[in-house]
Design goal:
heterodimer, A: alpha+beta, BirA Bifunctional Protein, domain 2, 2 domains, 9-stranded mixed sheet, 5-stranded mixed sheet, elongated, B: alpha/beta, D-Maltodextrin-Binding Protein, domain 2, about 35% helix
């Protein structure tokens, strides 16, 4: 006998949710806008499995994944995991099944991913991602396309106020490259920048024992941001070839953005350190004032695909679908109520049934949303149901006759299209 | 306009002069008794429970806030930490009853019970020391727990050590020193970079002025 508490029958587990019709319609509208934009830029859709081998998914995802992946076992004893991101499966695909495709390859996806997150501050355990990967193009023009596409897609989804912050991980890496740092110190340094713990940063920097000039530069990173002039500043402050090359690369990306007309959406931040170890160049995060977390994240990851056997540069981004929905709620865009009610209710008595069903078919063929009564409702009952559902056209068929009702008050009118 | 979440209680009394020295209009806070939202020129203040400040900031209900490092250790919120305000200084310690004779944490027995308002900090600290303990979360009057046999040790914050002494507890280890920090929402500290940077700089100056006036 089941001793399960009742809530396991009537509720869903923490971190997953239902989308009722109104929310589902809003979600699909966001996804459709993103998808249409991706397709217009030549990014083709791929659909990857919900379940894959853990070993494959673990190639790009750091130690976090060990704790957060939903795991299961197949009948042969392999460890499997639910889809954790889509970039990694795409890396696998382009290194294997699409390995002979002419480069660059442009792919997009819209998919749900699963992570056992601590439930706080806007995190869910199943959430939806829409993203693109531009594979096989190494230069700043490719990174500029990715940034411009992110801006275009966010606009297409209806976001009015947003900003894209771009950085270059090579700038930070250049400062500490070739310097012997204890693993703990290096980790603490990355952590302080990643978490934006600017109280700890100067203390950690002091512990590195690096030369004075490098310490100053590390402490300056949080302030090394602004419009294009921040890149100039970064260039003049760079004390090594790696940082200089990174700043020059970002300058080229930024210049290329001008032609797309999205420069005013872009902010440069050399203090932006991403949490994934795999970023190798330009990095990207998108923010909306109404959402306390990034709505978009991405960048260049030239090392990942090699883990699947083919050395190949790549860049891309991912947008959090629910976060866009939240941002749109914040700016309360008018006319985006979602869930349009059906246009027509068609009902009848027993004798008028065939005519009613045929009329419904004609209206549907014209592209209208039509519900046909299946409850044998009387005229009054049909009108009452239509009012409750917000349906503004009702047709009621009896043997050889038809009455139609229109408008919010469902006034009877002679004739009509039905 | 920036929204600033401030902790009510004793720390607020220290923050008001600091914010005044930083050039902010804090007259509303000084005058307010029960109001929780106070306008101060270009800034709006929210007065909330100290341990809730990071939550308001993490979710973006406030752009910036002031929270004790002890609270940040415990709650591990994803917020930016901009400035050490050097106020509300206290030490988080492991303390035991004097009569126990214990002098080091390693002398605590296997599965000793540790009472604390900071269960995560305590669990992390003992894990790092390689000591297995049972953490007992309490909401207040932690010192009571060892007196009545509920716990063998406590992890708590102390300013002067007086409350510990009065309850015959002696500190045997320091977990860390906590001060008040200026924190910011991680998106707002980017989108509102200029006003938040200006506030940070003003508070830094306010701190320096405060130090001079003590000389």
């Amino acid at each position: 006998m089941s001793m399960q508490p009742r809530y396991t029958r009537v509720m869903t587990p923490s971190g997953v949710r239902d989308f009722l019709p109104r929310e589902a319609a809003r979600k699909r509208a966001v996804e459709a806008a993103l998808k249409t934009t991706f397709e217009r830029w030549g990014y083709e859709e791929v659909i990857t499995p919900t379940v894959e081998f853990l070993e494959s998914l673990a190639q790009s995802n750091g130690p976090d994944m060990a704790e957060k992946a939903y795991r299961l076992f197949d009948r042969e004893g392999h460890t499997l995991a639910l889809r954790y991101d889509v970039t990694t499966p795409i890396a696998r695909i382009v290194a294997t099944r699409l390995k002979d495709e002419p480069r660059p390859v442009r792919l997009h996806y819209v998919a749900n991913v699963f992570r056992h997150e601590e439930l706080r501050a806007g995190r869910q355990r199943e959430f939806w991602q829409a993203g693109v990967e531009l594979v096989g193009a190494p230069g700043p023009a490719a990174d500029a396309e990715i940034i411009a596409l992110a801006a275009t897609a966010l606009e297409a989804a209806g976001l009015r106020e947003f900003r894209l912050d771009i950085g270059q991980v090579g700038y930070f890496n250049g400062i500490i490259a070739g310097v012997e740092l204890e693993r703990d110190v290096r980790r603490a340094l990355r952590r302080a920048l990643l978490q934006r713990d600017y109280v700890a940063l100067p203390q950690v920097v002091a512990e590195t024992g690096l030369p004075e000039s490098k310490q100053r530069l590390l402490n300056e990173l949080p302030r090394l941001q602004g419009r294009g002039e921040a890149i100039e500043r970064a260039l003049s402050l760079a004390d090594n070839d790696g940082s200089r090359a990174a700043a020059e690369n970002l300058a080229a990306v930024y210049r290329a953005l001008e032609a797309y007309g999205v420069q005013d959406r872009v902010w440069v931040d050399f203090g932006m350190i991403k949490d994934l170890d795999y970023y190798t160049g330009m990095v990207l995060e998108g923010y909306s004032p109404d959402v306390g977390f990034p709505v978009c994240t991405g960048g260049r990851y030239d090392q990942l695909i090699a883990k699947f056997g083919v050395d190949c540069p790549a860049t891309g981004f991912v947008i959090g679908v629910e976060r866009i929905m939240q941002a749109l709620e914040g700016q309360s865009a008018p006319g985006e109520d979602g869930r349009p009610a059906p246009a027509w209710l068609v009902a009848s008595d027993a004798a008028g049934r065939t005519q009613a069903i045929e009329a419904a078919a004609r209206l549907r063929a014209d592209g209208l949303r039509v519900v046909a009564d299946v409850m044998e409702r009387s005229l009054d009952e049909a009108l009452e149901y239509a009012r409750a559902r917000g349906i503004e056209n009702v047709a009621f068929f009896t043997a050889g006759s038809r009455r139609t009702f229109h408008g919010p008050g469902l006034q009877e009118r002679e004739g009509g299209p039905c | 306009m920036l929204t600033v979440a401030l902790p009510k209680g004793r720390l607020l009394g220290d923050l008001v002069p600091l914010f005044r020295r930083a050039g902010l209009d804090v007259s509303g806070i000084a005058a307010a008794d029960r109001r929780l939202v106070i306008n101060g020129g270009p800034v709006r203040f929210l007065i909330c429970r100290a341990s809730d400040v990071p939550t308001f900031v993490e979710y973006g209900a406030a752009d910036v806030g002031v929270a004790g490092k002890d609270v940040l250790w415990e709650t591990e919120h994803d917020v930016a930490e901009l400035l050490d305000l050097k106020l509300g200084r206290c030490e988080m310690v492991v303390a035991v009853p004097k009569r126990s004779g214990i002098q080091r944490v390693t002398q605590l027995g296997f599965n000793s019970r540790v009472a604390t308002k900071y269960p995560r900090v305590a669990a992390r600290y003992f894990r790092e020391q390689g000591i297995q303990v049972d953490v007992i979360p309490l909401h207040g009057n932690i010192e009571l727990a060892p007196l009545v046999g509920l716990a063998d040790a406590v992890v708590d914050i102390t300013e002067t050590g007086r409350t510990l002494r009065e309850n015959d507890l002696v500190p045997i280890a320091s977990v860390g020193v906590s001060t008040a920090r200026l924190i910011a929402n991680r998106v707002r500290c980017k989108l509102q970079y200029e006003p938040i940077a200006a506030l940070t700089a003003a508070l830094r100056q306010g701190l320096e002025r405060g130090l001079e006036s003590h000389d």
